[in-house]
Specification:
disordered N terminus, 248 residues, alpha+beta, 9 strands, 3-stranded antiparallel sheet
């Protein structure tokens, strides 16, 4: 006959209700639906540094888009004062920003860090939901040796990076000088046969080129000189994004 387990704790062990000496774990995050906006945060993985884990949790929550403080609290499971304090602290370092409605969102510093981490590669853009599909899944890394976006990202680099980037590249130093003069780049068949593109630089508040806005499509539609028709609209889009970053 098996007896019920004793509630007396073993020597040196904590009673189940004894929480002394233990750090407070993060609450399990929730999935929040509010006005058809869904914010999902994956269960946290503790690093042993509580404040860092909580800050990472907030950034993960903001990945889905801008949220109010109330939504941030519900999605992360953090106490309201803690969520607010950390979000404001991250704002101080430009890792979190606020939109025109006062909601928290990912800040421009993260884009700058991502650009530095992927200095030798291009990150692809979002795919169109309908119509002609010519883009590449988000997160795809592409060589910096071909294409109008690569030209834009390299054109304003320092001399050492220019020399390194031009090795085995489809474009030349003279072409990059033209990119700096015009403020945009174009390519036809460089990265992919039969595809043309136009790109313009996005700049950080300090003026550094941190990204490129591009359009691409079949050469049959864009032509061998796509910049003649599309440079103005691409430059305008890049300028608006740069301006928005300065206003954050």
């Amino acid at each position: 006959m098996t007896s019920a387990p004793s509630s007396t704790p073993l020597p040196g062990a904590r009673h189940p209700r004894d929480t002394s000496g233990l750090s407070t774990p993060l609450k399990t995050p929730h999935t929040l639906t509010d006005d058809q906006q869904v914010v999902e945060v994956e269960p946290n993985i503790s690093s042993g540094v509580g404040v860092l884990d909580k800050a990472a949790l907030i950034l993960s929550c903001l990945e889905a888009g801008p949220v109010t403080l109330g939504q941030l609290v519900k999605a992360t499971g953090l106490a309201r004062p803690t969520a607010h304090r950390l979000a404001v602290a991250l704002s101080h370092h430009r890792m979190v920003a606020r939109d025109v409605q006062g909601r928290f969102m990912l800040g421009p510093r993260l884009m700058e860090l991502a650009n530095a981490a992927g200095a030798d590669h291009l990150l692809a853009s979002a795919e169109r939901p309908v119509g002609l599909h010519d883009s590449i899944p988000i997160g795809t890394q592409l060589s910096m040796k071909a294409g109008s976006a690569a030209q834009v990202l390299l054109a304003w680099e320092d001399q050492n990076r220019l020399v390194e980037g031009l090795q085995d590249a489809y474009f030349s130093a003279a072409m990059l000088a033209s990119v700096r003069r015009l403020g945009w780049a174009q390519s036809a068949g460089e990265r992919e046969r039969g595809t043309a593109s136009v790109s313009a630089p996005v700049r950080s508040p300090s003026g550094k080129v941190i990204a490129a806005v591009s359009i691409s499509g079949p050469i049959e539609r864009l032509g061998m000189q796509p910049g003649r028709k599309y440079a103005e609209v691409v430059v305008d889009a890049a300028h608006k994004i740069s301006q928005a970053l300065r206003n954050v």
